[in-house]
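=== Given protein ===
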Amino acid sequence: MSLLAHGVGNSSDLPLPLDLVLQAGAATVVLSFLIAAVLWTRPRLSGGTARFVRTGGWIAVPQAIVLGLCLYLTGNALAGPRDATNPAAHALFVWLWVGLVPLSVIFGPVWRAVNPLRTLFRLLRLPRAGLRPRAGSGAWPAVLWLLAFVWFELVAPHRTDPLVIGLGLLGYAIAQLGSAVLRGEEWFARGDCFEVYSSLAGRLSPVRWRRPLRGLAAPFAVSPASLAAFVAVWWGSTVFDSASGSPAWAGFVQRAGHAPLYATAALVLICAGVLLAVRGTAGRLDVTASLIPIAVGYALAHYLSLLIVEAPRGFLLLVQEWGLAPGVAWNVMPIPSVIATAQVTLILVGHVLGVIVAHDAALASAERPRPLLATLADEFPLVLFMIGCTWAGLFLLFVR
């Protein structure tokens, strides 16, 4: 299925030679760090508060629409056609997994507001077992569910088969609702990987937060370790998706065989490697929040062409099942050079924002103002790590 082909560009589509783009990426990270170190001498992001959105009852309308659409898509995946005319794969892998990122970056944690599992839980008025969440458990359930989802999206055999998707969605809904019965509705905030995913991306929302980047300095409701693990899986899975599309990987699995086994091991190792690198590089400083704009930028860059091409195509498949717009097709193909430029920009902007957030966190954690050289020395390992991530992101996107 075409939706599994995430990119339309390669190194020949870049506005500059790849080596110059890599040098520009490193220079951008270093310059942003030096400018922040010189001009950003005191923490400025702390104390941010989220805007309170008054729904006035209108939120019930999008909640009902999303719930009805999810029920229809799941039922259609289970009982509908098992071919490319079924929109189930587009709904899960494009609308939800990819489309939720820009929506959350703009409007905030939208999935929490319209989460069909929350809506269904409230409508069914399921009994509560009375168990409380374990102290310090954080978002570990969401971490495991996210790892399971990205494995399903990137590795599982027959993952675009509508029946397989429908069974997966049904199983996920039953597991989440059952956990909510045991732990209460607050379970979804730390157990539903899509709600956590949307909430983290929503920390960048200018609609949700009064001043830019303040959301990344505000306290998180989950433990730092589980938050770092979630971001590592999110970011690491995108890195694996790029790497697994390379000729080198294709040649390796062709020679070795057992492709799902090796892909599973590589996915887990990359996610674990990202987590260990982040925790080890930062030392005493918790820089997880600074990785959120990097993960957002890389995810948008990686899936940009997929979103442009396949999101409207999935909508057409959906309405054509209802007898609407017969014969209409979406055959728009983005200009590769434009997509390549946008991808480079998204990656670099994400890293610049990450440098600023990490620098502000370092200042906020210091007991007293520090000399410039001490600031540079303390944050230099993190800058090297971000340069390496910038190079890896650009290289994997454009070298196939």
Q: What stands out?
A: Residues 2-46+57-125+134-398 form one domain. Residues 152 and 179 are 21 Å apart (CA to CA). The chain is about 70% helix and 0% strand.
